[in-house]
Design brief:
The chain has helices at about 5-20, 25-35, 45-55, 60-65, 70-80, 85-100. It is mainly α and about 100 residues long.
Length: about 100
Amino acid sequence: MPKSRSRILAAVHQTAAGLRKAGVIDQQTMREFDVLCLDPVKPFDAAQIRRLRTRAKASQAVFAAYLNTSTSTVQKWETGQKRPSGPALKLLNLVAKNGLEVLT
């Protein structure tokens, strides 16, 4: 079960899992419940990315290594020339929530 955003969603997910086990709902519907229970991926602007990196006390190069991207990409994010998306944005959300150590 994915970690829920709230206790209410956790209860709904648990109920749906029980219904799935009983054969009342199908696997596709269960997947839809799984998606509903995931935390949304929030966008980051240049200043937020820089604050996130400096809060982690990491240089751009070290931060880039943790995120498996280039230093140039981190520089461009921090100057607003590029915006993170996809897996990079998900990783930034994880780091914001749990710290850089989550990627070790």
